[in-house]
Amino acid sequence: MTAYLTEYEIKTSLKTLVKQYLENCKNCHQLSDEFVELIRYTLKAKYANYNEETRTIEVGVKQENENSFYNDIKTYSYSLEQAEQELGKSFNNYSGKELTYFGKFLNGQQNDINTEIRVIR
User: Fold this and answer.
1) 2 versus 81: which is more confidently predicted?
2) How far is it, in rounded angstroms, from Cα 67 to Cα 45?
3) What angle do CA 77, 42, 73 make, to 5 degrees?
4) Rounded CA gap, 103 and 121, in Å?
5) pLDDT per residue over 5-22, tens digit each?
6) What is the DSSP string of 21-75?
7) What distance in Å separates the CA atoms of residue 88 and residue 114, rounded to the nearest whole number?
8) In this structure, what is the dihedral angle of CA atoms 69, 46, 75, 81, given to the nearest 10 degrees?
9) From CA 21, how far away is CA 17, in angstroms rounded?
10) 7: which DSSP letter?
11) Which helix (H) or strand (E) holds 76?
12) Among residues 30, 47, 27, which one has the least CA distance to residue 39?
């Protein structure tokens, strides 16, 4: 099945979805699996979790380290409001075919190889 979505529709829907995920996070004090997947893909993170004590989202991003055999993981902490802004900025950096994954994510079919998303400018 093919779905046609505009860049505006995808970005607007993602921002609305993030607000819903963050509201759920405030209520249940944890990140849903879908939200973790979205954060990891968008911010190129190795992990994402919710720190209940500080009420922040912690994101681990791989940092290249030329002096070590292993890559370092740098942890960033975002308040819920900062996380919304950071994800929003990241969504705005994507365009055209790069938004295909997000279109599939919004349709709940990110792993379905039979689904095709066409992004319209």
Assistant:
1) 81
2) 21
3) 50
4) 13
5) 889 999 999 999 999 999
6) HHHHHHHHSS--HHHHHHHHHHHTEEEEEEETTTTEEEEEEEE--TTSSSPEEEE
7) 29
8) 160
9) 6
10) H
11) strand 72-79
12) 47
pLDDT in tens, 28-83: 999 999 999 999 999 999 999 999 999 999 999 988 777 767 778 899 999 999 99
Give me 73's structure tokens. Answer: 């993981």
- Token pair 């070590």 is found at 68
Packed helices 33-43 and 7-28: angle between N→C axes, nearest 10 degrees: 130
Amino acid at residue number 27: N
Measured distance CA(31)–CA(24) in Å, rounded:
8
Instruction: Tokens for 31, please give them.
Output: 């990140």
**Whole-prediction pTM:** 0.85
3-state secondary structure of 87: helix
